Amino acid sequence: MKSLTILVCTWLISLASYGQVTGKLTDDKRNPVPFASVALILAADSTLVRSGLSNDSGAFHLLAAPRGHYMLKITCLGYANYLSPPFGVDTAYDAGTIPLRAAGQQLNEVVIRSSRPLVEQTTGGLIVNPQTSIMTRGSTVLEVLSRSPGVILDHQTNAISLNGKSGVMVMLDGKLLRLSADQLATLLNGKRGEDIDRIELLTTPPAKYDADGNAGLINIVTKKNKQAGTSGSVSASAGYGKGAKAYAGAQLNFNQGKVNLHGEYSYSHGKSYALLLAQGSNDHTILGGPSKFHYNGESDPFYNYQGFSAGMDYRASTNTTIGGSIEYGITTEHTKSHNFGDYALPDTSLTYDSQLSGTNHIHYLHPNLYLEQTIGKTQKLSVNLDYFRNQTDNPTQVQSNSSNSVFAATQRNHAFANIQVSVLQADYTHTFSKKLQLETGLKGTGTHSQSTSAIENLLNGTWVPASAGTSNDLTTLELIGAAYAVLSWKPDSLTSLSAGMRYEYSSNTTGHSLNAQYNVDRKLGKLFPDIFLSRKLNTADQLQISYTERITRPSFADLASYVAYNDPTSVFTGNPALKPTVTHNFKLAYNHGDYLFSILYSYDTDPIKGIQGVPGLTPGLVYLMPENADWQNNLTGQFNVPVKIAAWWQMNYNLSGGWHRYRISYFPELLINSYFSYSLNFTESFPLPKKYAIELSGNYNSASYEGNVRNYGTAVLNLGIKKGDFRLSVADLTRSGNYRGFSGALIIDAFATRVKIDYRPESYFRPIIKLSYSHSFGSGGKTAVSKNGTKAEQDRL
Fold this sequence. Notes:
Elements: H1 2-15, E1 18-26, E2 37-42, E3 48-53, E4 59-66, E5 68-75, E6 82-83, E7 87-89, E8 92-99, E9 119-121, E10 125-128, H2 141-146, E11 151-153, E12 160-162, E13 169-172, E14 175-176, H3 181-189, E15 196-202, E16 217-222, E17 229-240, E18 244-256, E19 259-271, E20 274-284, E21 289-299, E22 302-315, E23 320-344, E24 349-375, E25 379-400, E26 410-431, E27 436-459, E28 462-465, E29 471-492, E30 495-511, E31 521-536, E32 541-552, H4 556-559, E33 563-567, E34 570-573, E35 581-592, E36 595-605, E37 608-615, E38 622-628, E39 631-646, E40 649-664, E41 671-688, E42 692-701, E43 704-706, E44 709-711, E45 714-723, E46 726-731, E47 739-743, E48 754-760, H5 762-765, E49 768-778
Parallel strand pairs: 1-8, 13-16, 34-38
Antiparallel strand pairs: 1-4, 2-3, 2-5, 5-6, 5-7, 9-10, 10-15, 11-12, 13-14, 15-16, 17-18, 17-49, 18-19, 19-22, 20-21, 20-48, 21-23, 22-23, 23-24, 24-25, 25-26, 26-27, 27-28, 27-29, 29-30, 30-31, 31-32, 32-35, 33-34, 35-36, 36-39, 37-38, 39-40, 40-41, 41-42, 42-45, 43-44, 44-47, 45-46, 46-49, ...
């Protein structure tokens, strides 16, 4: 927190040394020149500092700039480019009336070197450009995502929330990753951060996107290469925290004439460490009554990942493109943990000591075919066919010495899941005029999920089921049909209006469950409307207003009937009876140049809360599973403030937070809670001569609540150093990224739980240092990505 305070104070002091630049543009007849591009550039090296447009009367007003010497560059269609003499900016500078000459007598061109801002705002949400950050190269996609504004990653459960809300869905190139939180983390940890083009944080996505995700959508868009010829890149990274990390990958792209071929291979290895400390009291009849305990869980896992992808795009004619791709990933996760507990009962005490080991094999397959057809000059049709398969086989074995338990000294846990998703999608666009456009489409999704699980005890040399409620065999079939239409209208150059409707009908059924309560036959048909209005107020200000309605269907992992061992008193499991969450969003956004502000109000019915301790089939055993709360209200604001002190010092601050209120009735007594939380992300960049650069970044997440658990604040500080193709990164420089919580903070649950939790990830013990190298060759630098287009399915796997 001390580092954050110093940086915030530095930023506030720096604002006092800022000035503004104004002026007016006319033609040779003294008529105003509207909508001309006005750029403020440094006189020393022509680096872009600010930009804007002239208004209807030809006047322009550029935002505050640091004191220094600048030039104005003005461009407008039909007029010669204008470059002003250098001038100084103190508190303000009035350029007066600038006459522009008709095209024909051009000034010499000046080269303006600029890059995309770190954060941009659209009607749907924020766009983050991670390549602006030094920390991106050498980081995994999951690490880059966790540093994005408003994104909070729970390192203990791998759950992702956005602006204080859980229920966010993650997409990769427009396709929902239908994976559990752990599987999603494994997939994103196997992909390179430097392959990302942008991250779209869509809190209010329009109707052309799937309606899934009550907290919004996170769309991770990878780079695409359309340059002709042969190109590619090689990259590698190595690092160490408490364990070694390594990555190596190669990409190759061939684009010539009508054919574009691309392929990629990557390998990553990661060894980690974590320590879980818990102490408190609860009442478990399975142990014989109320107890006070101390519990330590030490894990030393590692994983290996191999990913393959290949694809082809064929331009059959100027109007027709067909193609396809295939992606295959293999992950092997080795689990090894040592758990120790000391339980003090009313008339006795017992200790628990166990060794848990296992190997989880994950296979991910995704083939795709697509067709894009242009019809005349105003119509476009695209058709996509996708298939996903995610298979997980996770056997584990536990050796323990606890006798007061439904579990024997030797036990094994088997969990198998096979999820298959087929998607057919067609999208059609008709541009009637420059002011009016229609987008419409159809989509069908079929999902078949099979999961089996069991915990077995070794008794007298024979494996037998531990007890009722610790095994299951469940098949789930889900069908979703969707149709949407979006009409976009631009009545003038300053105003845009978009209205859309999306209808989705879903059917969800389960079969041959060992638990009767998991026999589900649920059907839901619902219309999801949205409307977006955007208006430019002047050259610097823009206002956006929107309303959207969304739904969050439970992930297949949340619905699965698996049962996994946790400790002698609890098991992890899914909840096939989970209901979907329906959300209404109202958003007001305002841009003042590069400064971004937004306010979002949302109302959720049946919000899904993850990892809740509730009773189950076995008396006294705690079932850790997701549950539906009754409702939840959220009022959140977000502010993004970029500051450029000088050419060698740039800053970006993003603050998001607000008020939250929810009601839960699955506890023995009704729980209604209100709280305020916020998160702060910042980046300090220092571009230096000779291809050097330094970056300091970090985030602070305030205290918050999840159900009956209070989560305390966390802070992380990162450092990056760049020299040419090499990057050195240090994550969690201050070793402060541990998670602390208190379960039972608000009411007394069914087990009288009052437990303090301290989860210490690898970086708590030692900062994670990585050195990376990446080199591009040929005519381009990144493999092309096929145009497959399903947007919804991978996120729920």
